Amino acid sequence: MARLDRWLILLLVVSCHATATYVSVPTLDTSQVGQFGLIGQFAGVSPFSNSLQSANPADAAAFIRDPSSLFLSLLQGPGQLYDSCLMDQQLYLGGSFSSLLSASTLITVNNIARYDLNSNTLQPLGQGVDGPVYALHCDPSNQTVYVGGQFHQPVGANATAYAGSVAQWYNNQWLPLPWQGLNGPVHVITPNTQRNSILFAGQFDATGDGVYFNPNASHPVNLGAPVNVSGGNTALSGSGSNPSSIICQANNTALNPWLLQANVPGYWQASFPYAIQPSMLRLSNTGINNQATRSFSILALGSNEVFQLSYIDPLTQKRTTCSDMCFLANTPSITYQDFTVESPINTTGVRIDILTWYGNGGGLGDVQIFQSENTLYPENTSGNNCSGPSTTSVVGNWQPVFSFGSYETFLSTNIPTSELASSNVSVTYTPQIPTQGRYTLYAITPGCVSTNSCDQRTQVQLTMQLTPGTTTQITIDQTNPQDASTVIYEGLVVPASNSFIPTIVLKPAPGAKPPATPNTTIIADAFSFNRNGTNATLSSILEYSPSNFSSHLPIAWHPLPQQLPTGSAVLSLDASNGNALYIGGQFTGVPYRNIVAFDYASSALVPLTHNGLDGNVTSLALDGSNLYVGGLFNNTVDLAITSMNHLGIYNTGTGAWSNMGSGTDGPVSDIIPGGNDRLWVSGSFSHVHTSSGKVLTAPGNIPWQPSTDQWADPQVFLSGTLVNASSNNWVGDLAAAQTYYSVGAVTTSSWTNPWTRYYYLFDNDETAIVTSGAFWHNTTSNLPVTILGGQFTMQNGAIANLAINHNNSWYGWTLTGGDSARVNSLIQQDGILYVGGVFASQIQQQSVKSFFAVQLSTLTFLPVSGLSDANGNPGQIQVMALSTDKSKLFVGGSFAKAGALDCHGICMLDLAMRQWNSVGSGLDGSVQGMTVDSSNTLTVIGKLQVQQQQTTYAQLTNPTSGQTTWSVPSPAGSSSSVNLQQLTMTAVFAGENGDTLLAGISSDRQTVLGTLTSKNQFNLLSSSASPSTSSSGSSLLSGSIIQQLLFAPMAQSSADQARYPANTNSMLMAVGQLQLSQAGNVSVALYDGNGWSPYVLSSQFNGQPGLIQTFFSEKECCTASSIRHFLPVPAVILISIAISLGLIFVLVGAGLGWLYVRRKRQGLDYPEPMTSPWSPAAHAASAYGASTAQHHPDPVVTSSIAQLLDAAQMATLGNATGAAIATASTSSPQPDLPVRELQVGDQPSPPSQLT
């Protein structure tokens, strides 16, 4: 498949059994939070629960998608992916990359690799191949991977076994294909399962075994030195003034066109010091709309004959002949045209006369000249062939000599005849061989008569190394009177590679017969390489039958019976029908263009209705009777169907073309069957168009639903292009992959439940900015209401910057005020929504300016004055916060007045009176953030002035009194050397005990987070300048931006877990765009007092990390006042022991009191007279004998008390601990149980109960 060059991600998304490192992530306590949401600049978002997840954009990477839709990073590295295939849980990746990083190990793979999905290991295929891989096909029946691209051979392989562009991987080793290779790139490999064959397609016309080749285009003519390239009436200056700039342009495109002067004819010319016989010329136009060649002719210099040419007319699609006036197209879809020479002419130069032009003048973008044979002349000291240089080097004094017989120049040297046997003179030829094949090699020796040297000639020896490891020697006689052409070799010739260079060395032959003259003349011959072939021509498609080959049948590989035009580039095939092969690419036939079908029954090419398309076709996918076509085109050739915008649908049954929606805004590279009624469309586009005209954002890929003929919901977020897909996997050059496709906002009622996504919601997704959100519960409908604010439009502009969702329906207002109009802050309190930002609108007969309040139950606007700058224009509110008692609303930003009240940067609204009041005195500037702590101290950050002194933060005690003055606490005796005034503050949040958390970033991008205590000390919590060495989590890295801080309540918390603050149920949540040492880019992270853990990842449309600005929740939570504390474990143990001892004393006292009362009620108990000596046994028998049992209703009082004490212990400390203590009292002493086994913190009591 054709691809656009870029740095990208190789992304794999596969549902399989690969092992992943799952992380135990704390869960938000939704009983305290309720429904919650995230707001910011992102298009894809994922909850974090696996260490392999990533939001880091890499040059190349691979991901796996687990059953819970998490995208896990497997490998990464610089490069580009072109294709992949899967066989036996082995994923094969092909592209242009030298190495890949997997499991922290950099592995050299050289353009192809294999990832084992069972063991999660990356492995190279041998040593890889020596060029890019464009196409892969996994054949499970033969356990073979077929590889195509633009390479010569596998690295380290025998060069003679490979001719380029194809190879196969079988039984863990590289093997050549039976035909050894092809002479051009292979872009696609696809099976025809019905015919049990495999099709190789690209841009080639010869096989490496010499069976197939195109003689007209088999040898490019060198256009470098000593060829003289010149122009007539060339542009006088600028990049278009050099005629040599258009020699062998990459991919036949006009990278640096040559231009004529305005409105005058001219010419481009190449003069050769030897004769050539052109067989084909390939020309490209300038590609400039207002300056390009329209008509031309080509002259053979010397004879001054005009070449008779034939070509495919791009307009009529018919083969046309021309001579005096040939026409050259100038459209982006036609990158070059081939002109075949009908009557060969020997010439020493070629001149292209430009006769007419488009626009202001003529010019050319690329010129290539081909001939059917390749002749190497000794004057060719350097070369500039598209495939590489041809050179000659000499030993001795060699001088040019002109042959009057052939009118060509050769080299010759004269040496004393007496030194003939010992002379070391030689010429070494290094031929440029365009492709491996079988050649007949001729030595061309000028006659001695034409060089006047017949009495000085002798014999020379030729030493030829034309294949690696093989040397051939032959002696030829140079005493021929007339020009002679001698066959010196027939067989395989291998082109140059990194490990081999073909050479021919000419020197005097050992035992050469000395001439009778004092001097001997040695002539440096010319050598002609003629390619041999025995079959029909080949043009860009080869069909291979592995079963025929293994059965030794004679026809195992062959071209199509009817060929595409010479030079065609095939970029896509679909052979799923079996009986018909659909071909797409860049070609012009009769009467088809860029797409055609091959019918196997008739062995003929069959044009599609309307004769094809006006641009390249890069992808084909047959689904039922519909052939989906993608590429770089807009219309059918005959303009019967227009405005296709790179996509079309061709019904193979009816022959009717139709549009696919209304196409895309950029080229399509792939259409991939994805299963589940999905076709994934991918390419260099950012939007797609529906048939109704709606524009949808699509970051390089989007699914199409054939059953409904419309674009489908992507569900997951993928940024970049795809090259392969199924119902369980996607592979491609992807910059990012996240679980949810949601633009600007996402909400959910549980971290583990599916999140509510917002996609295709905003009129222009990629420009929409959501800055704030709020929830409200509608008691009438008993449904939650989601409110979003920012800078966006919905419903074709009917809603602007503020939207409310109730029962899956959106409504809102149009808050205007120019391009900068936006909502920055929302607060919902007691059913009233307070909206702050920068806007000016007329709503419900009320003029609102940057602030308003609305009763949500009735959508009634409440009268309240707006905010403005000193000139009366809308002010800007950046942030809002409620006072501790919720009776006042503080607003901060850049403004001068609230109604008629002077209010600089901060103002306070009395919610009951809806009246503005000033806040303290001495503050000016722009407020970017604020917080109110439990002691009613207001802290603000921004670009501020306090008492006319610049500051980044300021505080005000008791701001609701209106009588206090702003101050700037100066940290003294702090635990850090951070200068807060040198930071750009990004977040402020009220902590416990009058402390304030501050986050900022320094001028050198170092991020700082710390606590400003009530005693004016700044205690550093985390800093990218001094990363933590704790192993329990990540450290902040430079460039991290913290937008919001809050205390997030965690479910299933206990006193022995790491939390911040310590011994609480909370962790510090940081929202923004953070860089963590172990996790990379994250958007939400948790701090437990020791280190950071990733919590949410997000990505933008372009694949860069997203930025989350706000976390908002349905319930009032996440402040210092909502933190629940636990007593430390040792304190809990001591308290439990004290309670146990107290209970023991109470029970023992109660038991003793009961015995006392009982004995008192019984009266005196006189002992029986002793009848025998006293003994314990006898005493026990008499004390508890039958005669006295009636006086002792509970004889085992001590045992009962012990049981009561044991029961009390178990009730207090738990069954396990109580039993352990009870056992310890009757057994040998045991070591103390670990404190963690007490499980004291599993169900903590509120602090009031604990104290």
From TrEMBL:
Residues 871-1116 form the Rax2-like C-terminal domain. The chain crosses the membrane at residues 1131-1157. Residues 1221-1251 are annotated as: Disordered. Residues 234-364 form the Rax2-like second domain. It comes from the Eukaryota. Keywords: Membrane, Signal, Transmembrane, Transmembrane helix. Residues 385-529 form the Rax2-like third domain. GO terms for cellular component: plasma membrane of growing cell tip. Pfam families: Rax2 (PF12768), Rax2_2 (PF20842), Rax2_3 (PF20843). InterPro entries: Gal_Oxase/kelch_b-propeller, Rax2-like_C, Rax2-like_second, Rax2-like_third. Residues 1-20 form the signal peptide. This is Cortical protein marker for cell polarity-domain-containing protein. It comes from Hesseltinella vesiculosa. The lineage of its organism: Eukaryota, Fungi, Fungi incertae sedis, Mucoromycota, Mucoromycotina.
